[in-house]
Predict the structure.
Amino acid sequence: MNAASSDRAQSEIVDRSVMVRRAPDPNFYALVPLGIGDGSCESPVSYLCRLALEHCVSVDDLVNEGLVHYSPTNFRIWRHCSAWMKDGAINVFAKKRTVALRDALVTATGIQAIGQLSLASLDGVIDLAGMSTAPRRHCPLCYQAADFGRLFRPVLWDLKAVNCCPIHAVQLVSSDCGQVADKRRSRWHRVHMPGVCSECGAIAYACKPHSHIEASPTDLWVARQSAMLISAVSSGERFDASSMPERIRKLASLIGDGFPFRAAAICGFNKARLHDWIHGVRPIKYAPLLALCAASGTNAVDVLRGKMQWEEEAEFRYAPHAKRPAVNSLDELREKITSVLAVQPDLSVSSVAARVDCDRSTIMKRLPREAAMLTMRWRSAQRAGTAKRKLEARSMIEAVALKLRAAGKQVTVRNVWLESRVYVGKGSRFEEAFKLEQEEENDQPC
Amino acid sequence: MKKLDFSEVVRHITYEERLIYSRLTREQVLALPDRQKIRYFFSLRVKHRLRDAAEDRLAHLLGPNTDTGIFTLFGPTGSGKTALAETLGALMKSTDLGQRPFIFVSAPAFGTAKVSWTGFFRSVLEAGDEPMIDEKRAWSLVNGYLLGSGRRADLPAFRNAVCHMLKNRSTQLLAIDEILHILRFGDFAAIMDTLKSLSDAVTCQLLLIGPYELFDMVTSYGQVIRRGEMIYLGRYRCDREDKEKNKIDLKEYGKIIGKLMNQWPVESRPNFEVVAIDLLEATLGVVGLLKEFLTRCLILQTENNGVWKSGFISEALKKAHSINKIREEIEAGEAMLIRAHFDEPVIKPARLQEIESLIVRANE
């Protein structure tokens, strides 16, 4: 080792010994979540969108290029933001995605309160699967009253059980864009921001006028129960999962006057399921819990706390899901293809795909039999078309040749052009018919 | 042993490094390797009268309760303007998450006649520890619609991002060093308008740092005259007609030399205090030039195994042609300030006294 390198090595040792490493700062803005400790607490995706807007980046970029450094999860597999923007499950609880997003946001901003934005802390206490709603909804009066800087999307609106706003007592409305297709902004110019139509950019969804429909007392009761629960969760309250079966048994006994299983019929759910909830086989879902609370006159959040107070009963009853029809999406697609073929039977796979609004590869991969049938039909139609065109060309050239001979002229490319304005030279579709005509002419005896 | 190159050794001394050096004991300093010793000495920041006065004035003007939006800190090269701004930044440092009350940015030079605002805004974003700079996109509110741009990292995107960064990081002061790199080229009024609108958009104060030329440029912009303040960080002198003032300056300069020599990181310490008057003349009374001279002396002594040798002083001092050039610039700047009546009251002192006595009498 020479003097210079020993000096460098020495200085590095000193560097390491005397330098005090600062804890790495979270690089993202310490944006305060809105509505913490309140029934209208902000959802995690709403926070994410606001953070992206403040940093002047798209939500996709924020997740894929920014938050990815703060999380072991590869967010790129989630596809683009708009896919999960529409999925309320992240806001309520989707184990892999909600927890990963929440943890990344907490680390990136240093704001611990972000951990309380979803219902993740209720996991195990109740069954959170299927608790969220797919179509996006909002309360038009909430957005009308808010300033642009205070726009956010509460997690309450993503609950499937909730159909109205507990503050304004009006029904939630669909958050679809009201503009015609050509007035919507292209995907690259869209900004994802809660309270703003991402497709046309209208603030407070002003693109679609809504009439305010008053909520029913039952809907209002459900919305208020849900708001109370969200308020407790967002203020950091934790609930004991182990005592839930006992509390459910207590509620059921009260409803059934000492016979817990009578509660099943009163509330509208299956007796076998009630057995499972009482014996801890599986956690109760949110809607049956609400039904038990409504029938017994308690608040759902009080049941979770274990401090039940009896109040007036509500009319809410559990309604099981209507059974799904046995038709799956492929059957629907097959039907669409059949209806298209009924109008025009010899279309190619690509043409059919364009008409039924799906990808060509979907038909090729998922419906191979239909794809094979389409290909066969199309080829035979093509073949028939080619033969037909050849015949037409032949008869036309014969007619022209006849005229030329009658006039005492030779059948040449120039003469055919002058007579009929049809080019029969190299590359023309009449070339083959013309050659045949010439051969026939040559074969004739002089 | 490889010769120590001054400019290479003292490059990029961070605030954290300065903080660590300031906590070292004399024994620890003497135990440092040669390279570190020189960095340690060059990292020293000495408090002195002129600097303290400028710092007090600046600190007094900062804060939300003043209507001063743009400050101009100017003075001769090496007078400690950048150091003063950095010290101010250290004082304003916040422990709150994601907050940067002070952002210091050195305006980039591009060598062309056109100002690259994209490059400037990028520097501001980098100085504010902004993540994902290349992914920035502009958005705006137009007639009840939120409209986004499809382009990334363009000028509107950067301007938007800077405004949001200054707001979200709660930035109170944005210091722009070497502002002449921007102001020297292009439309001066338009540049100042851009800077002012940036400051207005986020209610953040701007500190422009530069040499004497900055005074001349900034005073020609009306907004700065009305809403701005000029702070001059000058030099010590011993060539004035007022002998008393010269004496005070010389004494202060001696003190500065003493403070620096107390931190000399070699056992054998040359006594520069006794030649304070000669050093004041040779370094034009500029503390930065003095520190540079002493650091060069230290390098020479360190390379000579810590033994002081005669002849080091002439080797370490800047040559006459360089000093004369700097002197010309400084003197021209000082003459300009005198011509512009800089820092002089608008009413004559005698009349001012009369006014004050009249006010008192009226009250009685």
User: Anything to note?
Assistant: The mean pLDDT of chain B is 86. The interface with chain A takes residues 1-2, 16-17, 20, 24, 28, 32-36, 96-99, 129-132, 135-139, 141, 144-150, 157, 160-161, 164, 168-169 of chain B (CB under 8 Å). Strands of chain B lie at 70-74, 102-106, 137-142, 145-152, 173-177, 205-210, 228-232. The first strand of chain B starts at residue 70 and ends at 74.
